[in-house]
Amino acid sequence: MTTNPLAALFTPAARADPYPLYHALRTQGPLLSPDGAMGAVGTHRDCLRVLHDPAMSNRPTPEPAEPQSFLFLDPPDHTRLRGLVAKAFTPRAVAGLAARITELVDAALDAAAERGSLELVEDLAAPLPIVIISEWLGVPAEDGPLLRRWSEVITRSLDPIGAADEETAVASAAAGAEMTAYFGELIAHRAGGAGTDLLSQLIRAEEDGDKLNLGELLATLGLLLVAGHETTTSLIANGVLALLRHPAELDLLRADPGLAERAVEETLRHDAPVQFTHRLTTRDTTIGDTVFPRGCLIALMLAAANRDPALHADPDLFSLRRKDHTHLAFSAGPHYCVGAGLARLETAIVFRRFAARVRQPELDPGSLTYRPHVNLRGPARLSVGFAAISRD
């Protein structure tokens, strides 16, 4: 075994379909590098156990000097910050965005009908979540492309176990600094106001006299922008791609729009936008027959766990007839994704409107390219041919 147990996943050949490799890695059981510094688990049982184990830390190593979003904190810090943010992410608040999401999806499809072409990522999957999170935060509409650029640059450095090169790391740090300065100005402008936008709500969020300080607020805004935009873009694109590759399933959705939510869950299980997460052992931990020493960084292969044959029959099959869509695409335990409801809502509306309006859609296989990431998986380009797009 190489020092990095997941090295094979970084080869270009694995980008289009890493799942055979996941199967092979999962079948080997828990993996540990010869020096004990890095490991990996890939069964649903093992990943779920680690995600719920309070002895597993989510703090980065080495810890950076600047404040971290609650994604990279452990209880009690994580519990406090997540609780404050969750006050703004209520189911009612998320549901209130449905009409605007539908309006944006239909506008994108109308524009595609007029052009006679649809590049799914650029025309729909990428713009939709950045507009929604920007509007919800109260960011000026003209700044949306700027936030998207920062988000795309920052995510290039998020592949696991030091995969990013120095140039990528430098560009990511610069984009992060620009974004921090931008949000700092917005916070100063909104502080003390009574605005109803998400940023104003986060500034005011309080529990038992506790509020987000400036560093915590800036880190949270960065997380909401990057995680909310990038992962939802890939979730939408992965799902539409799966439906195009399985036209019988698309026909089912077209006949029964109520299956849109099931299609979202099956996409999350079948081709999750986040393929990994990590935990650091704070004590020697035995998983199966493998002892992970204290200080070992364990990669949890969520995408492998979601297709675990011990959990699902025919796990590689994409099917809207599947009744059990159990998955770890949004993690589990204390770090379950706080924005899961919004991602689900946006994607379900796209699936429903795409199935209802796009007539005889067809994937242009020559157009399909994947993003360079290993961890954040999704198409970079995906052109869809069609006979027509109805005005329904």
From TrEMBL:
Keywords: Heme, Iron, Metal-binding, Monooxygenase, Oxidoreductase. GO terms for molecular function: heme binding; iron ion binding; monooxygenase activity; oxidoreductase activity, acting on paired donors, with incorporation or reduction of molecular oxygen. It comes from the Bacteria. The keyword Iron applies. SUPFAM superfamilies: Cytochrome P450 (SSF48264). Belongs to the cytochrome P450 family. This is Cytochrome P450.
